[in-house]
Amino acid sequence: MPPKNTREITVAELHADLQPIEVVAIRTSLGQSWIYRRMKEGSFPHSYKIGARHVWWKKHIDRFVAGESTECGRKHGASGVDNEKPLFPGAF
Questions:
Q1: Which domain holds residue 37?
Q2: What's the pLDDT at 46?
């Protein structure tokens, strides 16, 4: 029996710049609770909350999948966030 909270992931979602937890879980082969646990520990890139959803920058997940997660954390601080540009420039 498949899990209750599954949905089909589209190719467009896999290539989007902002990716939801379902896509991140598939790309990293990690469960959702494990992603949030590692994020809290600082060993996984942090998400951004947009409305009720959490999303990740694709480039941060690309780095994590490539095995550069600890590098990402050292270069960009404990959160692993790339501070080169704000998420929504001029919004605040």
A1: 11-76
A2: 93
CATH number at residue 30: 1.10.1660
How many residues would you count in the chain? 92
Burial 70-90 (b: 16+ CB within 10 A, else e): eebbeebeeebbeeeeeeeee
- Tell me, yes or no, whether 25 lies in a domain: yes
Q: What is the pLDDT of residues 55-83, one digit of tens each?
A: 999 999 999 999 865 444 444 444 444 44
Q: Give the SS3 label for residue 41.
A: helix
Residue type, 30: L
Residue 82 falls within a domain, yes or no?
A: no
pTM: 0.60
Residue that the structure tokens 């692993």 belong to: 80
Q: Residue 34 is encoded by which pair of tokens?
A: 């494990």
